[in-house]
Write a structure and sequence with these properties.
With about 325 residues, the chain is mainly alpha-helical. It is built from 15 helices and four strands. It folds into two domains: about 1-75, no CATH class; about 90-335, Hypothetical protein af1432. The protein has a four-stranded antiparallel sheet, with no helix packed on it.
C-alpha cells in the first residue's frame, strides 16, 4: 500500500472539525493549521501536529498505517487549510503514489472552494492568478491521467450551487474540447478559464434572484439575463484573460437558432469553443437538483437535449458529448 493510500473516513464527524483527505497533506511542509486525529470514532480528536510544526514523510506513512483513522482540521482554520491545499495543488495532483480517486477529490474540493471565493470577491486582484493556476493544475491532471475525468464525474455535486456548477461546466467543457481534438495548450487554458468563470457575472445579481427557489418574475429574469455582460465586464477589467475566455463568459447562453442571449447570435456567429461551453452549461443545469425540480439522470437529459434543442446546439459537438459521456475513458482518436 502507498504511504498515502489510506482510505479512512467514517461517521461521526466531530463538532468543530472537518475531515480532510490524507492526500492533501505534503511531506516537509509547515501547514499553518492544526492536524487532529480520531480513531474509530471511539474517543475525541487529539492534536497530532500543531500549525507551526513540520509534517514529515514518516508522519504521513504512520497516519496511512493507522487503519481506520479520521484526519481532522478545526473548522476555525478552514481558510488556512484551503490556502495550503491550493498552494500545494500541483504537487498533490502530480504525486502518482496517491490513488487517482484521492487526487481527484482534492482537486474538486479545491476548485469548488476557489469558486466560492471568486463569487464573494470577483474583482480581487488575486482572483486572476488563483483561477489561472487552478485551470492549469486541473488541465494537467485531465491530460495525464486517463481515468481522472471518470473519477471527477463521481464527485460532481447533484445539488445546484453556482460555484459547483462552475467547476462542473469547466470539467465538461475541457473534456469535450479535448475529445473534439483541440490540443493547443494556450487555447485549452483560455477555454478552461472561460468555462470556470462563465457565471462570474451572477456575483453582481441580487442573491434573492440567483437563489430563487421558484420561477423568476419577468423583471427578475431580465436581470438574470444580464449576467453574461456583467461577467464579461469583470474579466475585461482584470485585463488578464484571453479572447476565448471573454467570449465564453459573454456568449455561453447564445444558441445556433438565434434564441439565446444577450445578443441573439446565430450559427457561425458563435465561436465553436463557445458552443462547447453551451452544451456543458445546459447539461449540468439539467442534471443537478434544484429546489423546484429533481435532477435528471445523464441519458434522459441527453435525450431531452437531442429532442428539444437540436436547432439550438451544435449537432457535431453534441454527438461527441454523448459519445464522451457514454465512455469517459475513451479518446476521440479511437472513436
Amino acid at each position: 500500500m502507498s504511504a498515502l493510500s489510506s482510505t479512512v473516513v467514517a461517521p461521526p464527524i466531530w463538532p468543530g472539525f472537518r475531515r480532510v483527505p490524507l492526500a492533501s497533506l505534503r511531506a516537509d511542509t509547515v501547514t499553518g493549521f492544526d492536524i487532529y486525529i480520531a480513531v474509530d470514532g471511539s474517543a475525541p480528536p487529539v492534536l497530532y501536529r500543531g500549525h507551526d510544526v513540520p509534517i514529515s514523510q514518516e508522519n504521513l506513512a504512520a497516519l496511512a498505517d493507522r487503519g481506520r483513522i479520521e484526519i481532522l482540521v478545526p473548522s476555525s482554520q478552514e481558510a488556512a487549510y484551503q490556502q495550503y491545499v491550493e498552494n500545494n495543488l500541483d504537487l498533490i495532483l502530480a504525486d502518482k503514489s496517491t490513488p487517482i480517486e484521492e487526487r481527484s477529490q482534492v482537486l474538486y474540493e479545491s476548485a469548488t472552494n476557489l469558486m466560492r471565493s471568486v463569487f464573494d470577491s470577483p474583482r480581487a486582484p488575486e482572483m486572476v492568478s488563483r483561477s489561472k493556476s487552478m485551470v492549469a493544475n486541473a488541465a494537467s491532471l485531465l491530460r495525464n491521467e486517463k481515468v481522472a475525468f471518470e473519477h471527477l464525474l463521481s464527485l460532481v455535486s447533484f445539488d445546484y450551487y453556482t460555484y459547483t456548477h462552475s467547476v462542473n461546466v469547466f470539467l465538461f467543457s475541457y473534456m469535450l474540447a479535448q475529445f473534439a481534438g483541440y490540443d493547443d495548450p494556450a487555447l485549452m487554458q483560455d477555454l478552461g478559464e472561460g468555462a470556470l468563470l462563465h457565471d462570474i457575472g451572477k456575483s453582481q445579481i441580487d442573491a434573492s434572484i440567483v437563489q430563487c427557489e421558484g420561477k423568476l418574475s419577468d423583471a427578475q429574469w431580465l436581470e438574470m439575463k444580464k449576467h453574461p455582460e456583467y461577467g464579461h465586464e469583470i474579466l475585461r477589467q482584470h485585463s488578464a484573460f484571453g479572447g476565448i475566455a471573454l467570449n465564453i463568459v459573454l456568449h455561453h447562453h447564445e444558441k445556433l437558432d438565434g434564441s439565446g442571449y444577450p445578443h441573439g447570435l446565430k450559427g457561425y456567429e458563435i465561436h465553436p469553443i463557445v458552443r462547447i461551453s453551451t452544451i456543458a452549461d445546459i447539461f449540468d443545469a439539467m442534471t443537478t437538483r434544484r429546489p423546484y425540480r429533481e435532477a435528471q439522470e445523464t441519458f434522459p437529459a441527453l435525450q431531452t437535449m437531442r429532442n428539444e434543442m437540436s436547432d439550438a446546439l451544435d449537432p457535431s459537438l453534441f454527438r461527441m458529448f454523448v459519445e464522451m459521456m457514454g465512455n469517459p475513458r475513451r479518446d476521440r482518436a479511437y472513436v
